[in-house]
Amino acid sequence: MKPLITCEHAGFGYENYDAVIDLNLEIFPGDYLCIVGENGSGKSTLIKGLLGLLKPTSGVIAVSEELRKSGIGYLPQQTAAQRDFPATVWEVVLSGTLSRRGLRPFYSEAERKLAWRCMERLAITDLKQKCYRELSGGQRQRVLIARALCASEQLLILDEPITGLDPSAIQDFYSLIRQLHSRDGITIIMVSHDIRNVLGEAGKILHMGQRVLFSGTVEEYKKSPAAKAFLGDRTEEGGKRQ
Amino acid sequence: MTMLMEMLSYPFMVRAVIGGALVALCAALLGVSLVLKRYSMIGDGLSHVSFGALSLAVAFGWSPLWASIPLVVLAAFFLLRIRAGGKVKSDAAIAIISASSLAAGVIVTSLTTGLTTDVGSYMFGSILAMSREDVVLSCVLSLVVMGLFLFFYNKVFAVTFDENFAQATGVNVERYNVLIAVLTAVTIVLGMRMMGAMLISSLIIFPPLTAMRIFKSFRGVVLCSGVLAVVCFLIGITLSYGLSTPAGASVVIVNLAAFLLFFLAEKLLGRRNKTN
Question: Contacts of residue B175 in chain A, CB cutoff 8 Å?
């Protein structure tokens, strides 16, 4: 099997600042990869690099022909401006199909059908004419995933997807992603702080701390020193909060 | 009615009505994107820059429109850069640029023609500002702005709603931001002599904000804000003729009234929905 994305000694960063150093990573079709790490460990920068929004400052990042054609579905972090944005669910989902065409000004029948299919998949067809700003956090998430699926049904990149969701919406979200991954065979890359849930969901873990601290399967990760240090911190934190 | 007929019997009023309504429409369309992207201040900044540019043009005896448009477009690029760069706090940077170009404009004017009523008319607009050439130019440029807006409507939506997503899926976000900024700059220059440098940004900000009170779809907001802009402009200019009040200020006050009306309607609708 050929990887969708290959990074070889890749570095990403901004002027005078390297956020990600010497990254080796292969993403295969059907992977469920979770990127974890402290704040400022280069997770979001890496995502930008994978999306092609940021050129590598060193090394190589290669994207397979297949993926280049189909594109990448992306679920960005929600911005404050979106919370009072006047747009219907339909308008938002439909805008995901934009990448598939050049200068043509209006949506085609095929694009409308695709958008509708993506909404059916996420069970949000009844929200079609609802206003985006009036939805719950979980519903918004579904709308944005439907939009991402319009852009690509091959690879989905999710950036901190559970931020701001309530606990039941978080469980819904994970089962939805599980479904997209196992039933529809969509490759998933997710950045998350929610390490405990992630260990039960993902297949592979990439632990970032500017450099790669760990990369491999979840089982190996649980035994690794990187996980011990990180998880140890987390349980302590959790304990303090209670 | 007779007043309306009388008003339209003056050629300068006809020019003002046609030119103004078109500019108001363009401003409102672009305004939807600017307001939702939190770029309202850029519209305001550009109007101050256009005051400076206009003063320069008049001082040197250049054609006011042709000289101002490139200068203001340049400023639009610059203001967008500030937003994107994010090193200086952008609202502060815009305020600095606004005040500086206003000051430069006033100094240039006072050194050359002197601070006469002309300056007042740049600041607060004059109904006599539109010459025949200006009206033709306004019509052409307004049609260009509307054509481009319609053609790129879906992309404008995507870029306005979610820049990151649009960029990740291969839309050239930068290009659309520049397009919106350039069109805004042109619209502001066209409208500012009639509306006034201090008041022109209201044409950009009021209609979208008013439309957003009630409409829940992007298309609804765009359409409503376009209609509102034209209606408010026509009411405003008629009032200004009837009551002999300054045109620009009258239009702004009518826009304010429309906003308050919609705001009230939103509250009433919201309450009814809750009790249901």
Answer: none
Domain boundaries in chain B?
2-268
H helices within A20-129, ranges in order? 43-51, 65-70, 89-94, 109-121
Q: Does domain B2-268 have CATH number 1.10.3470.10?
A: yes
CB contact under 8 A, B157 and A95: yes
Using a CB–CB cutoff of 8 Å, tell me whether B38 touches chain A: yes
Inform me whether the C-beta atom of residue B239 falls under 8 Å from chain A C-beta atoms: no
* Of B104, B132, B99, nearest in space to B119 by CA: B104
- Please, are residues A162 and A194 in contact by the beta-carbon 8 Å criterion? yes
pTM of the complete model: 0.84
Q: Residue type for A138, please?
A: G
Contact (CB<8Å) B155/A98: yes
Q: Is B37 on the interface with A (CB under 8 A)?
A: yes
Of residues B69, B224, B52, B218, the one with CA closest to residue B134:
B69
A74, A82, A130 member nearest B161 (Cβ): A82
pLDDT digit string, tens, across residues A9-47:
888 888 777 888 888 888 888 889 999 888 878 888 888
Looking at this predicted complex, what is its ipTM? 0.82
Torsion of CA B108, B111, B116, B122, to 10 degrees: 0
Q: Which residues of A touch B219 (CB under 8 A)?
A: 91
